[in-house]
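Hello,

Our lab assistant flagged a job as stuck in the queue for most of the afternoon. It eventually completed. Since we weren't sure the result was trustworthy after the delay, we are filing this so someone can double-check. Below is the sequence as submitted and the structure that was eventually returned. Let us know if re-running is recommended.
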Amino acid sequence: MIMTANTTFTSATRPSVATLYLSAPEMVRLIRMQGVRACIAGIAENIRDDFLRWPDFDKSARVANHSEDGVIELMPIADDRLYSFKYVNGHPKNTRIGLSTVLPAFVGH
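-- returned structure --
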């Protein structure tokens, strides 16, 4: 069974690509389960591995859309297996009203 932010899929209804949303409370639970040291070590290892293959990535300039209240930016990057982007919602009022400002997304093929 796969659970996303708003939907649960069983093997009979599962889409070909599932989305996993890792909310802040889920991240806290993960860190408590794995430990801060292990989480930081895992992140550092992934960053190191990615920088060692930096030439393998197809890097694109960020795409920005501005409004009166801020900016939304997509920051894409891909290799021969995965396409990912970071969605940055640069609207200063969002944090004051409890909304997220960064949403990373990864898509594989």
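-- support follow-up --
The delay was a queue issue, not a problem with the job. The result is valid. The longest helix spans residues 36-52. The radius of gyration is 17 Å.
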